[in-house]
What does this fold into?
Amino acid sequence: MSEVQRRKYSQEEKNNIFDGEFMPHIDSMYNFGYRLTFDEDDAKDLVQDTYLKAYRFINSFEQGTNAKAWLFRILKNSFINEYRKKSKQPAKVDYQEVETYYNSDDVDYQSTTDLRAESVKGMLGDEISNALNSLAVDFRTVIILCDLEGFTYEEMAKILDIPIGTVRSRLHRARNLLKDKLRGYAHHMGYDTDEEEEI
Amino acid sequence: MDMNEETSQSRKLKCDDTSKCFQLLESILDGEMDNSKEVLKEKLAKCQPCFEHFHLEQAIRDVLKTKCTKQEVPTELADCIRQKIQDIK
Ligand SMILES: [Zn+2]
It folds into this structure.
């Protein structure tokens, strides 16, 4: 039974899937890897590992489904299972700790920010990147997936193996942390943050 | 704020349910809501905190999407991967 259900692609089909559906995402994959590790070699290793795994497990990929999400999930798992273990630099926040702490649904949605949209729009790419890069990896990841790569909540839930509600609350939390960083830049750069706009 | 400054007097200065409203606005911005246009129009016209939150959140998404520097993929990476795949075929 399971033999029947398991698709076996021919060599030609495998090649087509690999070249047509997997390889076009190499740019996004590399950028994701780089934003997780901040290291070119580590990012290369992660992407390479991901593609080798993708090839090895190609029979469990359903042709025509979301290859990008499938690849991102493999890369994220490789990062957690392998890269983080051998990394000399311990993760600042324990993954499990973050989970239990932030999994609560009562994320507060208070409007406390004095950061203005206009200040944000005026910021430089480096400031935005630095703010994003300074976030703990779990928060950084949801922002990368949502805002840089355009994944839906549902796709993110699958990539990260977490419920959609957690995706939403973690994103909200991540953006609040990002706002704190951006507010810091705004003050530093002398952007107007808390004054009413003069007419 | 912005070009909508003149209409802001008609907005409530306090939001009735910040949690619910903000969560809704963020879902809309993330493209998770169908038929969001009408809801959005009403929210933004009626409530100042919602209006401000929406524009700030929108600005943040915009700059993330357009300004975050992209890392150039090493040219040899794709070839390297293809070579390794050849080896395990
Ligand atoms: Zn409101």
